[in-house]
């Protein structure tokens, strides 16, 4: 059978044996017939609490948190919908859009215009959050399980704070969106490192689809609740990255409703592990670098047999990326097992340790082969990874080695679909 993988902006087709192949995709939900109307309804008839306009008074300052360029959030629709609701109440000069970069690089002016549209960038202030700029942060106390909370000062000082995001399963925070647009999105480096420390990331409940009892999400939720969010707006997207549904209102109730919808759309039970799992990172913009592609690997890891093969197709046009210390840390130890030992010995001191920890755990349990267009064989070898230029041939070889009953699972949309093994499977 031919299967089309989400890869870059163009996709990638592979050929796999019919009888041995299981393809797992999200339940397709059609796009909302009028996305603008869906967003207006979420702002005016929220899940919980009063409409947005009833929460804002003339003369107040407004901060709006939005995802950075590594996320397919429909910012060009969501932000104008909010600005339209605020029209006539607040002055555009009192509105700041904060790009919730977490520890990622800031977006360029050209990227911001592509993300938000020229009209937004030319009308209100759009600022990249910088987790490493101490002068731009305010200490907000200790919250959750002893998390020292530093947040973007513009966010803290605003009279009105609005989060905007999209909700999908997240590989250690349970689900994206909601409170993550406060921390880690707008948090200082110390806060992010604490939220992503070895103990939290290593907890068995720090995984796809789990929010309550997940030490990462429990703390993220506690920080947002303690520091205050005026209104939350999240959307659910389909495989075409179109808005399916919008949810607004009090942050906790809004996010709970959105996660319930995302769980139904994106999580799939399977009865047994597979010898080979082919995955992606859902194409552009999510597969811009290897750092993000770990999410696709993690989705595959849920259903690959111990010692099996994961093949991950991610374009990686932004490399590892080059900024930050991710590449350096991956290459600093002779094996994934050694990386895990180093992180365990020095929790919260290894840069990018949370992403490295998850990647090392995957590579310690399965062979991982990449298909990329922008990373060479030597680059990947330094990260304890292999490269294939022909996914179909690599899968065929692996199935032949595994025996006549070998099976392959394909996740064409990567972490847009999260498979999980039902209770009692081997």
Write a concise synopsis of the structure shown.
The chain is of the alpha/beta class and 426 residues long. It contains 15 helices and 20 strands.
Description:
- There is one protein chain.
- This protein has 15 helices and 20 strands.
- The chain has helices at about 35-45, 75-85, 110-115, 120-125, 155, 190-195, 200, 215-225, 250-265, 290-300, 325-330, 335-345, 355-365, 375-380, 390-400; strands at about 1-5, 10-15, 20-25, 60-65, 95-100, 125-130, 135-145, 145-150, 160-165, 170, 175, 230-235, 245-250, 265-270, 275-280, 305-315, 365-370, 385, 410, 420.
- Strands 3-19-15-16-17-18 form a six-stranded parallel β-sheet, with helices on both faces.
- InterPro entries: LarA-like, LarA-like_C, LarA-like_N, LarA_C, Ni_dep_LarA.
- This is Nickel-dependent lactate racemase.
- Pfam families: Lar_N, LarA_C.
- It comes from Actinoallomurus spadix.
């Amino acid at each position: 059978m031919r299967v089309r993988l989400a890869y870059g902006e163009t996709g990638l087709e592979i050929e796999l044996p019919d009888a041995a192949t299981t393809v797992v995709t999200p339940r397709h939900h059609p796009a909302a017939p009028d996305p603008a109307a869906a967003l207006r309804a979420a702002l005016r008839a929220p899940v919980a609490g009063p409409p947005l306009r009833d929460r804002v008074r003339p003369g107040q300052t407004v901060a709006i948190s939005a995802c950075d360029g590594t996320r397919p959030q429909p910012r060009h629709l969501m932000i104008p919908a909010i600005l339209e609701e605020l029209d006539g109440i607040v002055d555009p000069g009192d509105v700041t859009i904060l790009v919730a970069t977490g520890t990622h690089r800031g977006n360029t002016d050209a990227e911001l215009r592509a993300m938000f549209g020229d009209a937004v960038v030319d009308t209100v202030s759009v600022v990249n959050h910088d987790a490493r700029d101490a002068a731009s942060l305010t200490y907000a106390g200790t919250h959750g399980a002893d998390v020292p909370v530093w947040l973007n000062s513009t966010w803290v000082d605003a009279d009105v704070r609005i989060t905007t995001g999209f909700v999908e399963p997240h590989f250690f925070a349970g689900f994206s969106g909601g409170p993550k647009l406060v921390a880690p999105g707008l948090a200082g480096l110390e806060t992010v490192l604490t939220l992503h420390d070895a103990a939290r990331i290593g907890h068995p409940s720090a995984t796809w689809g789990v929010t309550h009892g997940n030490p990462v999400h429990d703390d993220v939720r506690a920080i947002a609740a303690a520091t205050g969010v005026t209104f939350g707006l999240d959307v659910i997207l389909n495989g075409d990255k179109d808005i399916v549904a919008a949810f607004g209102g009090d942050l906790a109730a809004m996010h709970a409703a959105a996660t319930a919808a995302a769980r139904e759309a994106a999580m799939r039970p399977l009865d047994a592990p597979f010898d080979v799992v082919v995955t992606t990172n859902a194409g552009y913009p999510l597969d811009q670098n290897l750092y993000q592609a770990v999410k696709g690997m993690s989705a595959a890891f849920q259903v690959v047999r111990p010692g099996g093969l994961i093949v991950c197709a991610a374009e990686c046009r932004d490399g590892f990326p080059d900024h930050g210390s991710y590449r350096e840390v991956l290459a600093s130890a002779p094996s994934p097992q050694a990386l895990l030992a180093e992180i365990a010995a020095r929790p919260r001191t290894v840069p990018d340790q949370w992403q490295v920890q998850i990647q090392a755990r995957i590579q310690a349990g399965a062979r991982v082969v990449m298909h990329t267009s922008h990373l060479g064989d030597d680059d990947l070898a330094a990260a304890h990874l292999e490269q294939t230029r022909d996914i179909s041939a690599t899968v065929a070889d692996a199935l032949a080695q595994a025996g006549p009953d070998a099976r392959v699972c394909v996740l064409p949309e990567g972490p847009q679909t999260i498979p999980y093994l039902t209770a009692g499977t081997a």
